[in-house]
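can u pls check wat happens w/ flavin-adenine dinucleotide
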Amino acid sequence: MSQDAEETRAGRRPERAHTRIAIIGSGFAGLGAAIRLRQRGEEDFIIFERAAEVGGTWRDNSYPGCACDVQSHLYSFSFAPNPDWTRSYSPQPEIWEYLRRCARDFGVLPHVRFRHEVREATWDESARLWRIRTSVGDYTAGALVLASGALSEPRMPELPGLENFKGRAFHSARWDHSYELKGRRVAVIGTGASAVQFVPEIQPVVSRLHLFQRTPAWVMPRNERRFAAAERRMFRRFPALQRAARAGIYLFRELFFLGFRHLPLSRLIRRVALRHLRRAVPDPQLRARLTPDYAIGCKRILVSNDYLPALTRPNVELVTAGVAEVREHSVVDREGVERPVDAIIFGTGFRVTDQPMAKHVRGRGGLTLEEAWGGSPRAHLGTTVNGFPNLFILMGPNTGLGHTSVVYMIEAQIEHLLGALDYMKRRGLAALEPRPEAQAAYVAEVDRRMAGTVWTAGGCASWYLDRTGRNSTLWPDFTWRFRRRVARLDPAEYVASGPLRGGG
Ligand SMILES: Cc1cc2nc3c(=O)[nH]c(=O)nc-3n(C[C@H](O)[C@H](O)[C@H](O)COP(=O)(O)OP(=O)(O)OC[C@H]3O[C@@H](n4cnc5c(N)ncnc54)[C@H](O)[C@@H]3O)c2cc1C
């Protein structure tokens, strides 16, 4: 690679260039799209990544105890099985390394422009291409793939007085490893999927841990184990074995959907979670405060064997009164109790339903995605949006999951993207977008499937719901149904504009 090209990749030098396909983000989605493009012989694409390394979620979340909660045999690319997972649920360093290895081994790295933050992308109707403004320079692209992540922007609660806090405060997704927690008094705000993983790790180290819980979560046992070296050798020698393990996990997890669909069945899952809680927390008063009053699955189910026991330790206090204010050296709850703390750690999750990139992507006529959505994201097949030609959103509206691997969904969407690009190439088309009636029918179908599920009838207000109260986050059915519907492009659902005219 020339020095100029090297400097451009490193983000030190702007470049003006056209590419056939621009991908924003290098997590599972962006890398998966890039790998599949290369496997089809496509080399004319660029990945814009604002950070200095690939990996997305698995680069940014390095908090103690960070791991996946879907078994790794399934939570990985179908085309890149990894026989070397050391545990059934891999820890973050292994998943990040897996993604870096995939980027390297599948020849994707030369396509990545690191430290290139995409600031704005605007559809140019006359040139039939996307104009992309990055922190380093301007680009144009025939198609735009939004792979910027559904869980990549940490959500910070607005706490009165936080700006005056004199101790250390950080979000779990931006863990401050330079801060020594040993012997400190720590407030943890939030009890979601991340807190459940880091609380048991820091509890033995800190002197005092005040855990601020707004709503208790359902916690299921985590059937985790180490893979023996012999087992890993078997997976390497007989890949069919690993494929079979993956298929088994997939089928087992799909069964959970039945519980989400049929509330009576969810009571079975609930019984397992209640027994888990009873065994871990003998004190009935503490247990009562940790028992959710909504149907299991309504909010994300958490899996952990050591979270609940950690809450019974003498240095831990569960606070359910809510935070009223933060002072220079303390946190005050709504009952007026002031607790002196050295650090505040936010386990408050991510901005999911108000996708940050939606403000910066402008379709035909200059409307942003955010404006087009009006508070409730909608897309055809969760992937394409009328008025936004040649835009493909990976992990778009209603593609999230509460029970199994989103990599499965991402791969289905990537096949749709490839189908669309092939179709356009074959027909010499410049632009493709879903017909408004096809999109409306699909969204209505999703809403119909959603009705009566635990996510709408489960009696909770979760981060799955947008500000209009609609669940625009989750796919409300078996995932194979999504794949069957999405992986193939049906040209009848799309409107193509114009033959290719230069540039596009
Ligand atoms: C702690 C944690 C554990 C999880 N565990 C599981 C699990 O067990 N199973 C499961 O199915 N899912 C899990 N998830 C969900 C997880 O986010 C997805 O599985 C998956 O990693 C999402 O990949 P992605 O590529 O869509 O997004 P991300 O991994 O978030 O990647 C997005 C990338 O886009 C980049 N980017 C964003 N905006 C811009 C911009 N403007 N310009 C340039 N680059 C930009 C970001 O820097 C990032 O690299 C977990 C999430 C978290 C946070």
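The longest helix spans residues 239-261.
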